[in-house]
Design goal:
Blueprint lengths: L2 H18 L30 H8 L4 E4 L4 E6 L4 E7 L8 E8 L8 H9 L2
Antiparallel strand pairs: 1-2, 2-3, 3-4
């Protein structure tokens, strides 16, 4: 055997052998589902309401954003802006409000209950 080939073969064998020691993960797939949205619900104004009830109370939302597991409805009247985040409490269930944010049009935080009352007073 050619001594140059032998040296090149030995030089390449080390790094290539290291590649063979990489063990692929046992399973690659979708991450496990987390806890249902109901696990994160707090008490407060609008919590647990569905979109139909929100629209009955506040009228047509200014924004209606839908993603795979979340829906955001935004209501505003010039005095306050209310964002309601709806998640399904379980597979096949109607999404309900699990979080609410409220602010002035300038961006100052407001109490969501006060903003909801303000939106009723249109």
């Amino acid at each position: 055997m050619n001594p140059v080939r032998l040296i090149i073969g030995i030089a390449l064998a080390g790094p290539l052998a290291a590649c063979g020691s990489v063990v692929p993960p046992a399973s690659i797939g979708r991450p496990a589902a987390g806890p249902p949205a109901s696990a994160f619900m707090r008490s407060g104004p609008l919590m647990g309401m569905d979109a139909r009830h929100l629209i009955q109370q506040f009228g047509t939302p200014r924004l209606d954003i839908r993603e795979s597991t979340m829906r955001k409805l935004q209501f505003a009247n010039g005095r306050c802006v209310l964002d309601a985040y709806l998640y399904a409490p379980g597979r096949g269930k109607e999404p309900v409000v699990t979080h609410v944010d409220a602010r002035t049009p300038a961006g100052t935080d407001l109490d969501p209950g006060a903003c909801a009352a303000n939106l009723h007073a249109k």
